Amino acid sequence: MTAMTTSASTATGTSPAAHTKTGPKTDPNIDPGADTDTAVTAAPAVAAVAAVAASGAGGGSRGRRRRRRGLAPGKPWPASRLAGPLLLIALWAVASAAGRLDTGAIPAPWTVLETGVHLWTDGTLTTDVLTSLERAGYGFAIGLIAGVTLALVSGLTRTGEALIDGTVQLNRAIPTLGLIPLFILWLGIGEAFKIAIIAIVVYIPIYLNTHAALSGIDHRFVELAEVQGLSKVRFVRQVVIPGALPGFFVGLRLGVTGSWLGLVVLEQINATSGLGYMMFQAQNYGQSDVILVGLLIYGVFGLISDSAVRLIERRVLSWRRTLSN
User: Fold this and answer.
1) Which of 11, 149, 214, 227 is the least crowded, having the fewest Cβ atoms under 10 Å away?
2) Are the C-beta atoms of residues 112 and 289 closer than 8 Å to each other?
């Protein structure tokens, strides 16, 4: 037995003492030399299998990464949202230069630009733009505060949901522009009814999306907050607000767009200033270039305000990993 152990130790390049200290305990009835020979013979095979497995795993990981890169939309283009409008303007200019458009109905882009510069130098366009911005700003601010407040009360309390949600859903089902005659009777034909209608147009999408986001918060987060003993204020600040922010920003973008859409209609009803009033007067005199100036300004305001909301959303929700970022 001693000779066999010495022989096995010599074959593996180790001393008997080292084998005794580091090797596993074996059954004395089993031939130690046979065990050692088997281990030595199996070691290269095990190493080869491990290498193949590692190579396969690495290849599979690289393949999965390639597939993920292929499914993702890729990096966003710089100023990509301007590509579509600039393409439309280019097509408009080409069609106008080729004489494919009726200049009486759709003037050329350079004609519209000249008209806009003329109105701006006269001071007419400046006054109308400032008036429209003031109306849209007041209405949007009121609608924003109302929408967020009602959504929080309705989303965090059952009493608020019972009293508020059904009323808002009823208001949503009624066409907002159909309320104009009633609001004129209530508030007169001044600025109050215009701002009130814009506020209604704004608060409905903000309320709906914020309330939906609040209702969609995982109840496990609520249970965790209860276990941690969070107060109502900390619960709202640390759980409710982060959970509702994505839906809130969706409603905010819709509200910003709605404020401009409502303003276009309202400024053509019993108004004496504003972009809508300018366009209404241009319609009476057949000035299609002035109408296009007003529409382009509305579109630029809408694009700028939507881009501003997107930028704020990206900064506030920078912790999210989405397809857009």
Assistant:
1) 227
2) yes
Burial class (CB in 10 A: 0-12, 13-18, 19+), 206: buried
What pLDDT band is residue 26 in, cutting at 50, 70 and 90? very low
pLDDT tens profile 27-45:
444 444 444 444 444 444 4
Question: Cα-Cα-Cα-Cα dihedral of 93, 98, 104, 108, to 10°?
Answer: 20
> What's at 94, amino acid-wise?
V
Residue found under tokens 């390049």:
13
The pTM of this model reads 0.72
